Amino acid sequence: MFIDAKTLLLGLSEVNAKAKSLCEGLSGDQLAWRPKAGGWSIAENLIHLCITTQTFLPAVDHALAESLRRQLTGGGPFRLGLYGRMLVRYVEPPPLIRLPAPKPLRPLSSIPPERALEDFFRCQAAMQLRMKTAEGINLTGLRFPSPLASYVKMNLLEFFSVFNGHSRRHLWQGTNVRRTIPLT
After folding, report:
1. If exposure means fewest CB atoms within 10 Å of the residue's CB, which of 2, 48, 84, 98 is most exposed?
2. What is the pLDDT of residue 102?
3. Coil, strand, or helix at residue 154?
């Protein structure tokens, strides 16, 4: 599978459109509704995606800066290797394996559900800026550690691809929740 920065940006735009559609017409109570004990609401899925973005932005910023410093240039398209394809498949919906989110990435209940979509779009805009910055950089030229587990290393192509896939997964979860929201 060959990918360039524009393809990644298109994927992010598609995620944004799906998030908007998912939340359209829902009240704060509906956004906060949980399908079962331990399940996440639509708002919690969006908040989780924001927390994940905020957690990874410093590592992505460092990888971009280091790639520029090392003059690792190239417009692509680039190819996801086996490791990258496995990472992406792991996060894409429907999930092959369900594992709990790492504790630092679990949604905070202190954020009002009405604000979840707005915060999500703000975080998406921050990642969009990084994807635009990555245009012209060799997305496979530098590996960097995950801020959650330093033994997990990835390149920018893998990260951005996983980022979009992870977003699709949680929007898929949100879509399943929306189907079960009681009509009031």
Report:
1. 98
2. 80
3. strand
